[in-house]
Amino acid sequence: MSELKQDQYWMQQAIELAKRGLYSTKPNPNVGCVIVKDNQVIGEGFHPKAGQPHAEVFALREAGEQAQGATAYVTLEPCAHYGRTPPCAEALVKAQVKKVVVACPDPNPLVAGKGVQILKNAGIEVEIGICEDSAAKLNQGFLKAMSTGMPYVRLKVASSLDGRTAMASGESKWITGSAAREDVQHWRAISGAVITGIDTVIADDCQLNVRSLNNIDIETVAQPKRVILDRRGRLPLTAKILENPETVMVMGPYRQELADLGVIQLEIQPLKTLLQTLSKQYQIYDVLVEAGATLSTVFLQEGLVDEMISYVAPTLLGQSARAMFNAEFEYMAQQLRFKLLDVVQLDQDIRLRLIPTQEKV
Q1: Where among 141, 160, 187 does a domain terminate?
Q2: Is 56 part of the annotated catalytic residue set?
Q3: Do 273 and 331 sit in the same domain of this protein?
């Protein structure tokens, strides 16, 4: 096996380790580390939760003195700053590893090349970019927020074959089956916040939290904030979403009764500014939008959606049912086009993952 193939093999092991923190590390990134010597794993670790040791620390503890002269495979550039934990780059230097292979550079200004420089200054060989695309997918929100100040926004929709999301009366339970609804729990669980509109809360009395995940203890999941856009202050105090008020944020006029419950209240602001606020002030780097046609359309038309997750059920609801989007276009040139990332069948439904594209017809 070539050296490149070996590096890719061990980095894939580190990526699999990083995935173990997928639902619990927010707002920290998912990171895995494997330490290899004489083609054998002598230490491995992943970052489980903010405030706990980083992946490299767990791996170095397991490796012990054997780490000297070994190669460390890390999915994200080792940190170079003192936060809740000491710098991992310095820990690798202290352990006297021979080489560090890094999948993704860290755009966080507190790191951004400094971790690599600490290693190089100590005479440690460093290689960057092995399996970078695969590792980056684990931290799309973190990487985007550190680079741009904006979170990664996913828009989730569920519709019939004729693009309808509810009957004219508002009845919408259920268009898709249980497998599709279970899949939605994953996207909520990796999100720092779920954004919805007040009309959806009033119509569905939804909770928008994570209630079940396959083979995962829900108690270990960092629940997303539920962000409600309520410009006229209509949120009922009896709404189910307020059963856990400490995880609720409301953008609307100030209401003392919400403050008494512990709800975080945000001033009314444009959607782009709201996203920047969530990222910069609240360290929310992944956002899931689960809303009605009006709000979903605005997010798309303002170019704020990074990815659309569309569940399609094999059913027809008819022309009087509510449309998935309510944009009004006159010309083909105005259409919103997407690039298809993947298609997955979930029992009788399908899930399409798409990214908006500027491609013109």
Answers
A1: 141
A2: yes
A3: yes
With a cut of 80, say whether residue 235 has pLDDT above it.
Answer: yes
Q: How far apart are CA 252 and CA 201, in angstroms?
A: 14
What whole-number distance in Å separates Cα of residue 172 and Cα of residue 321? 10
**Residue 160 assigned as binding residue:** no
Residue 214 lies in a domain: yes
Structural domain including 161 reads: 149-356
- Among the listed residues 44, 56, 77, 307, the single catalytic one is 56
Residues 325, 300: contact at Cβ < 8 Å? yes
Residue 85's pLDDT is what? 66
DSSP string, 171-228: --TTSS-HHHHHHHHHHHHT-SEEEEEHHHHHHH----S----TT--GGGS-PPEEEE
Residues 24 and 163 in one domain: no
Amino acid making up residue 337: R
CB atoms within 10 A of CB 140: 17
Mean pLDDT lowest for which of 35-39, 205-209, 244-248, 325-329? 325-329
Q: Which two tokens stand for residue 357?
A: 């594209």
Query: Pick from 123, 141, 159: which residue ends a domain?
Result: 141
* Domain CATH number, residue 269: 3.40.430.10
Asked if 355 and 339 count as a contact pair (C-beta separation under 8 A), the reply is yes
pTM over 0.90: yes
Identify the three-state secondary structure at position 42: strand
Residues 114 and 228 in one domain: no
Interior angle at CA 50, CA 44 and CA 53, nearest 5: 35
Centre a 10 Å sphere on the Cβ of residue 215 and count the other Cβ atoms it contains: 4
Instruction: Check the annotation: does 186 bind a ligand.
Output: no
Residue 360: pLDDT over 60:
no
Q: Closest by alpha carbon to 166, among 206, 142, 129, 200?
A: 200
Name which of 283, 270, 298 is nearest 151 in CA terms.
283
- Tell whether residue 104 is among the known ligand binding residues: no
The CATH number of whichever domain residue 42 belongs to comes to 3.40.140.10
* Residue 265: inside a domain: yes
CB-based contact 98:70 (threshold 8 Å): yes
